[in-house]
Write a structure and sequence with these properties.
Number of domains: 1
Number of helices: 7
Low-confidence stretches: none
Bound molecules: iron/sulfur cluster
CATH superfamily: Aldolase class I
Mean pLDDT: 92
Structural class: alpha/beta
Largest sheet: 8 strands, mixed
CATH topology: TIM Barrel
Radius of gyration: 17 Å
Length: 244
């Protein structure tokens, strides 16, 4: 059944050139950007057929190409429409990472999650964690099914110890986020992210409850510039919709 096939798909967005999505109905966060689309609503549905992905991955040929905002080396994202390590899709994600590990995709993979997965399968690429706030209560309220911030820290430390290259997504920036302190704390744990992406909460599509906790653009820019100037060895990206 083609609907059940997992594939490497050309991305229409500006940040990466390919995506690997294998679930719809991700429900970890109240502020989910995807909930504006009908297809993203409802309970989690997982794709499991790896046959096409295996073929695509084995014959994958990467060459530098344009992407509006992102460094182009790590431009196969898993996943753009859900958390790959969502409790419903975790076993499939592990299978996918094992499958990709020995293919040309591995060194161009960009992983992004809010779940503290320890001892993940060894697979190349850039491993990313989303951290939106350092306030556990705010995270519990707005990201009720994701790992608490301190567990995400522990997972990042585990990944660093296992030799993974790392990045951070700090989006949306919520009350309790202190970007400089976040990086400083992680560095003390031996976590040295290569990239940090920061962004705002998209109010137009979101619940007013989540909007109450969103930092305003001026504060996002202030924190971004402070952290960027303090840690110049990191590549910093501020999403274009944030206005100074
Ligand atoms: S992890 Fe991402 S896709 Fe899932 S609910 Fe949160 S914002 Fe939406």
């Amino acid at each position: 059944m083609t609907a059940n096939r997992i594939r490497i798909k050309k991305s229409v967005g500006p940040f990466w050139r390919w995506t690997i999505n294998f679930m719809v109905g991700c429900d970890q966060c109240l502020y989910c950007y995807n909930k504006r689309w009908n297809w993203a609503r409802g309970s989690p549905r997982i794709k499991t057929d790896l046959s096409l992905l295996r073929k695509q991955a084995e014959s994958f040929e990467w060459s530098p190409g344009p992407s509006a905002m992102c460094t182009t080396l790590y431009d196969v994202l898993t996943s753009s429409s859900h958390d790959p390590f969502h409790v419903s899709s975790l076993s499939t994600a592990v299978e996918i990472l094992r499958l990709l590990a020995n293919t040309p995709v591995a060194s161009h993979l960009r992983v992004l999650t809010k779940m503290a997965l320890f001892n993940p399968p060894r697979c190349g690429g850039l491993w990313g964690m989303t951290i939106t706030t350092l306030n556990g209560a705010v995270a519990r309220l707005l990201e009720p099914l994701a790992s608490p911030p301190h567990e995400r820290f522990n997972a990042l430390q585990n990944w660093a110890q296992r030799g993974h290259k790392l990045w951070l997504s700090v989006e949306p920036m919520l009350e309790g986020m202190h970007l400089h302190d976040l990086i400083w704390s992680l560095e003390r744990l031996g976590v040295h992210p290569q990239e940090v992406w920061a962004g705002r909460l998209n109010h137009r599509h979101l619940s007013t409850k989540a909007a109450e906790y969103a930092l305003d653009d001026a504060e996002i820019v202030r924190q971004f510039e402070e952290a960027r100037d303090s840690f110049p060895e990191i590549r910093w990206y501020l999403k274009r919709e944030v206005r100074a």
